[in-house]
Design brief:
The protein has 20 helices and 18 strands. Helix 8 packs antiparallel against helix 9 and helix 12 packs across helix 13. The protein has an eight-stranded mixed barrel with strand order 10-11-12-13-14-15-16-17. It has a five-stranded parallel sheet with strand order 2-1-3-4-5, sandwiched between helices. Strands 7-8-6-9 form a four-stranded antiparallel sheet. The chain folds into three domains: 129 residues, Rossmann fold (3-Layer(aba) Sandwich), CATH 3.40.50; 167 residues, 2-Layer Sandwich (Alpha-Beta Plaits); 217 residues, EAL domain (TIM Barrel, Alpha-Beta Barrel), CATH 3.20.20. With 544 residues, it is an alpha/beta fold. The relative contact order is 0.07.
Length: 544
């Protein structure tokens, strides 16, 4: 019998032990970048990948499947697991794993892989059919399934209440944190909704996603015999309780910043059965009506938020969290970033607060208040020699009230250019910055590697500090491409008299990696949580 080969990108001894448990198998180790060129070699029966590079992983799985080869993925964390599932790998396991588990996963992948090749088309049909029945992300039934399940109940009762749940700021989560984080939040949301309905009077409702992998939900509520359909007031009260329940679950699982972006707008449509109208058409019309109603609720809520913003500006209802920035080599505190937060619940998230301000054309007023609040805390929060980092959008420099005389000692203030809007006229903008720089202010480019904050901004603004976006730092300890990018950025900064700040360091492994790469300054929850202006000054040497 010919030898079977497990092609892998890792020389982990545990993988070799696992291969030894597979009778007649041997491991063939190749670098992840060389896997594609090796797939055509004879004797390969399965592929095991552990790369954290999404592009290499995707290409490896796709090319292996084209050749009829099953794939096992070793996942370093939950985000990697989601990516493996998304890419339709046959099997996955979380690191670290035992040799026995890896061997079992490999056998299972080979068994599953029997559907590849000649039967691949049939397998694709099965996957498509499964996706039509249930959303793979949330596990909820899809719309066609829910319509069929409700058909007879609707006919017998004669009425149906459709609720459209519009999670308006979930797109913001994906924009800031990436699709993996939004997928995780959606899973939490679906689980919390199911738990809530199990204990609620509307427990007989049918709940589903509007479309596969979408982030809005639809409820069908068929009233029980002898029970009146839920009124507008009852539904409003239920939604309030649901919002509290789901929000608490999201905060527990994903933290306060994510929970602050959670909001629901609900639209309602009350349908009555009419045998002259096709039932599916009637329900789809009701869904559109409920969706439009949710948008009307959103518009009314926006008006309330604008009023809340006006109140906040009038009564100065903004506070500042001071997030330490430390020297990577010594862990001593170098300075603090001022993070503005709204005191009113509706404006707690800075993203929401500034979105509302942009819609109401009050960006300048809000920016003035946030800067003033940040500067007020300098005397109580900062020790001598420590710097204050203040976020400023390029648009703020056009504000006549924003002058270079806002602080007593400009040499202790770093203006972070946070590009919510693109810089359109660099020569004019640089002239404006020069007036600030000439009296001692320093500048940082925020979120480098994300949005507008690319190499163009760095080259044009000549910053004193370059703040690397969290997307470059997350899981950097296992991503060689990110390491190379950061190392290049550090060299570039040193060549031009600037310093690099790594944002979003949340794990010891990430901190160690950025230290080794020569990053000058570090910021993240691994070292410190933000402190409010009323908190006592924290020690100036970190022992974490």
């Amino acid at each position: 019998m010919s030898e079977s080969i497990l092609l892998t990108d890792t020389d982990d001894p545990v993988v070799r032990q696992a291969v030894a448990l597979l009778d007649g198998w041997r491991a063939e180790v190749r670098a992840a970048s060389d896997i594609l060129a090796t797939l055509a070699e004879s004797g390969i029966r399965a592929v095991l990948l552990t790369t954290s590079d999404p592009s290499l992983l995707r290409d490896g799985i796709e090319q292996a499947h084209k050749r009829g080869l099953p794939v096992v993925v070793g996942c370093a964390d939950e985000a990697a697991r989601r990516r493996a599932v998304e890419l339709r790998t046959e099997e996955w396991y979380l690191l670290p794993a035992t040799a026995e588990e890896i061997a079992a996963r490999t056998w299972s992948a080979v068994a599953r892989g029997a559907a590849l090749g000649a039967e691949n088309a049939h397998r694709v049909d099965q996957v498509e059919q499964e996706q039509m029945l249930h959303d793979s992300l949330t596990g909820l039934p899809t719309l066609p399934v829910s319509i069929e399940r409700s058909r007879q109940f609707f006919k017998e009762r004669g009425e149906l209440v459709v609720l459209y749940f519009n999670f308006v700021r979930y797109s913001k989560i994906e924009e800031i944190y990436g699709w993996e984080k939004l997928d995780a939040v959606l899973e939490t949301t679906a689980s919390a909704v199911r738990d809530f309905l199990d204990d609620d009077d509307l427990g007989d409702s049918r709940v589903m996603v509007s479309f596969t992998n979408d982030d809005d939900f639809i409820f069908f509520h068929v009233p029980q015999d002898g029970v009146a359909a839920a009124t507008e007031g009852e539904i409003t009260e239920m939604v309030t309780r649901l919002q509290r329940h789901v929000g608490a679950q999201i905060e527990t699982a994903h933290g306060e910043d994510i929970a602050a972006l959670f909001d629901i707008y609900v639209g309602r449509a009350h349908l009555y059965y009419n045998p002259k109208i096709r039932l599916e058409r009637l329900i789809y019309r009701g869904i559109r009506e409920a969706q439009n109603a949710s948008r009307s609720v959103e518009q009314r809520d926006r008006a309330r938020r604008v009023n809340d913003l006006k109140t906040s500006l009038r009564d100065r209802l903004v506070y500042v969290d001071y997030h330490p920035i430390v020297i990577a080599s010594t862990k001593e505190i170098f300075g603090y970033e001022a993070l503005a937060r709204g005191r009113m619940r509706t404006l707690r998230s800075p993203e929401v607060m500034f979105d509302v301000a942009a819609e109401a054309d009050m960006i300048w007023e809000l920016s003035r208040l946030c800067r003033a609040r940040a500067i007020e805390g300098m005397k109580t929060r900062l020790a001598p020699g420590e710097l204050l980092f203040i976020n400023v959008d390029p648009h703020d420099f056009a504000d006549p009230a924003f002058t270079d005389q806002e602080v007593d000692d400009p040499s202790r203030v770093v203006i972070e250019i946070t590009e919510r809007t693109a810089i359109k006229d660099y020569p004019k903008f640089r002239d404006r910055l020069k007036a600030f720089r000439d009296i001692g202010y320093r500048f940082a480019v925020d979120d480098a590697g994300s949005g507008y904050a690319g190499l163009g901004s760095i080259a044009n603004l000549e910053p004193d500090f370059i703040k690397l976006d969290i997307s470059l730092i997350s899981a950097i300890d296992s991503n060689f491409i990110k390491q190379n990018l950061v190392q290049t950025m550090v060299k570039f900064a040193e060549d031009h008299g600037a310093q690099v700040i790594a944002e979003g360091v949340e794990r010891a492994e990430e901190f160690k990696t950025v230290q080794e790469l020569g990053v000058h300054l570090v910021q993240g929850f691994y070292l410190h949580r933000p402190q409010s202006a009323s908190s006592p000054i924290i020690p100036h040497v970190v022992t974490a």
